[in-house]
Each structure stands twice: as structure tokens, then as C-alpha cells.
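Agenda item 2: pyridoxal-5'-phosphate complex prediction
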Amino acid sequence: MSKESYIRDAEESILHTYNRFQVVLDHGEGVYLYDTDGKEYLDFAAGIAVQAFGYHNREYCEALKAQVDKLMHTSNLYYNEPIINAAKRALKASRMDRIFFTNSGTEAIEGAIKAAKKYAYTRDGHAGHEIIAMNHSFHGRSLGALSVTGNAHYQEPFEPLLPGVRFAEFNQLDSVKALINEKTCAIILETVQGEGGIYPATKEFLEGVRALCDEHDILLILDEIQCGMGRTGEMFAWQHYGVKPDIMTSAKALGCGVPVGAFFLTERVAEKSLAPGDHGTTYGGNPFVGAAVDKVLEMMERDDITGHVKEIAPYLEQKLDGLVAKYDFLTARRGMGLMQGVVCEKPVGQVAAKALEKGLIVITAGSDVLRFVPPLIIGKEHVDEMAAKLDAVLAEL
Ligand SMILES: *Cc1c(COP(=O)(O)O)cnc(C)c1O
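Presented output:
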């Protein structure tokens, strides 16, 4: 079938909630994707920070195939071995104490919000608690996650959302402090804001928020769905700061293509939080996703993926800085590790579309940022190829 007929069929059947790039992707190998016409693309988006090991990683694929032949799903009424192994590895990597597996990042956020509310309910003996979230944040599309997503455009049609959510300015500690009252049970933020435009938290801000939380027995929820799993050069971005969350969320690269998320708790929170009957999921943490998460974490640890990110990221930064210096309409670069953004004063959607034509996949963030979240296994040669292709695109603008 031709590309045009695939796209026509898709638009006639699948609800139009995305303005998709005009390409039908077929298969992948390493850091390259191939469309149904056989055209090759260098991938600097990784399925939105998901494919940490790129495509068709033999060891990962074999582990999944073996689990498919053994046992895919049973339900959370029973124990299963792969998810126990995955949980142990995830807790070791995060230095958290308890984990709950979900099917997506959004559901991990839902669970984190419920866990925080239940903690405050147990402590105070009543409900009615409030949450502080950040402007320009992104935590997901379900009604709970949307309620803490600081984007009026995403929220408006679906109001009223969860009551008792107040929005502060990211990286402005006073704006957080001003919103705290006796009802506040949690502060939720992304350690590095992703969709909002690639903004890393400053050290002063994160330390300040942690101190406020400690002072008022408020739970710090860090959303590591995009910035976690080795992307910034530590397994979780907060590990750069010496600040530990009470609750953390993960997803995206946690399964490297298998849909899975998780929320993590410290023991102190877990003790007073969700108990039998409070929360559940049919699929969450089944043997199949367990095998995926277990293998991903095994490979990340064994191959020292964070060491590799620390080594390659400065080279990516240097190449992006070179482009920022060369083009007037590129005004800044910011980010951490292999989560980088370049501020662009020309329409970023157009840049991404032109890049695709030239065989380079990049995505955007916010309204004016080009986002670079490549597979974590990229080498210098891939950075060079990306920079050359992007340079050619920018030169034509
Ligand atoms: C992608 C993302 C989510 C939502 O995850 P889904 O798996 O799409 O539900 C939440 N928070 C952050 C920071 C994200 O990047």
C-alpha cells in the first residue's frame, strides 16, 4: 500500500487527536527508523524519550520473546517472578522503598496523587487536602493528571477538574511558598520540565522546595517520567541535586517500548498510604512488562548507561551550541544530559517537518523549542550526522 493510502485509512478510522508527520514508520535498527518506502531516518526523538536502547536490541527482544512463550498475564491476584525482579532492580536504582506498577505515565501520576492524599488523610483523620503544581508542567491527559498540568489550553474544555490544585512558577521558590497552607499535602513537579520547553530545576529551587516540604510535612512528588531512566546522566534526575522525593513517578524508558509506568514511595509514605482496596490495576506489573523492565534495568546497570550519557552529552551540547552561535534565530540551548532543547524563533513545527524530509527525526517542546531526546546509546558519529542534517535544514530557513 502507498504512504498516501495508509494515511487516508488512518484519518478515516483513528480519532484525529494528533496532527501527525506525514510518514508511516515500518521498522527500526539501532538509532535508525525506516518508513514503508524504505527511507532511513536518524532518530533523535526515541519515541519521545522511550527507546533508550534504540530499536531492535537483540537482548531486549529475546527477553520479551521468551516471556511471551512462558506467561504474559495473570492478574494482580497472584505473584509473578519477573515483576518481583524488576521491582528489586527499580528500587535499587532509585533508592526508594516501595513501587506500584502502572500501564502508563499518566496512571503513575494518578497513583502518586492518590498516595499523597491518602497519606495526609491517614495523618490528619480527614480528607480535603490540596496540591501545589507548576505552570508549564506536563503530567498527562487523564482528569487527575490533567488537573496538575499547568496548561490552560489543555485544561479548559474539561473543567471542572480536581479541586484544590494551585499553580506556582517553576524555579521561583517564593511563588511556591506563597501558596502553602494547612491543607497542602503535596508539591508535584518535573525535575526537568519536558513538554513545557526543557527547563531543568535549579539547585536552589529544588533544595528550597524540599526544605518547605520538610518544614510543613508536605510530600514532594517528582515526575521523572521523561527525565528519568538515565537520560540526564544519573538514573533519576534528582540524583544530581542531592534532593530525594517522597514519591516519584517513572514511565517512558522504563519499558523501552512496552507500555509501563510506576510510582515509587519511601517507606515513611508507604506506611500511611495506599492499602488493600485503595488502588489497583488489571494489567499493571504483569509478567510480560516485568520481563521488559527487568531487562531494561539489567542492561542499563551492566552497560553503565549513565556513564555513557555523561560522556556523550557534552559533545551534543557543543554541537548544538555551535548551531545556536551560527543562526540568529536560535537564541538559547538548555537541558541536562541527553534531554536538550534549543529555543528557535522560526516555527519549530516547520523545522521538524523539514528535518524529517532530510531523514532526521526531531520533535518540539512548548511553542518555540526544538527537543533532542535521542536513544541513550548514540555515539559521536550520530551527533555529527544529526548536526549536519539540522544545519542543512536551518540554512534553508
Ligand atoms: C509523557 C509524560 C507523562 C505522561 O506519560 P504517558 O505515558 O504519556 O501517560 C507525564 N509526565 C511527564 C513528565 C511526561 O513526559
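Discussion summary: The CA atoms of residues 194 and 226 lie 7 Å apart.
Owner for follow-up: CH.
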